[in-house]
Amino acid sequence: MYNHVVVSHLDDAEIDRIFHALADATRRDIVTRVLRQEESISQLARRYDMSFAAVQKHVAVLARASLVVKQRSGREQLVHGNPEVLHKAARLLDEYEQIWRHRADAIGDILSEEDE
One GO molecular function term (predicted)? Predict the structure, then answer.
């Protein structure tokens, strides 16, 4: 029942892309930065101890997951966050939490019946 609700607003491929992208600390940091303020890939590359190409690859993973949006402005690629996708991911986790709470409540009910 709960899985049906989850599938209705995110398909499995989207879920895989989002959580794969967020599984990396550098990518989570990039998302945090570009949610606060749009930055170019050059600006982002100066913040990390890695090559420009490596930062581009991280941004590409985030863009495939729709967590960030790239937009060309002259010679630069500007990156900004996409809070809507984060909201969908949060909603998915909330649904999983509801499943867990339902099970925990059921276990609590069983234990209280045994005490009576």
Answer: DNA-binding transcription factor activity
Residues 21-62: pLDDT tens digits?
Answer: 999 999 999 999 999 999 999 999 999 999 999 999 999 999
Q: Where are the domains of the chain?
A: 12-114
Residue bearing tokens 């398909």: 11
CA distance 101 to 41: 41
If one looks up domain 12-114 in CATH, what number appears?
1.10.10.10
The C-alpha atoms of residue 14 and residue 58 are separated, in whole angstroms, by 17
> For 82, which DSSP code?
-
> Which pLDDT value is given to residue 2?
47
Tokens representing 16?
């895989």
Which pTM was predicted?
0.82
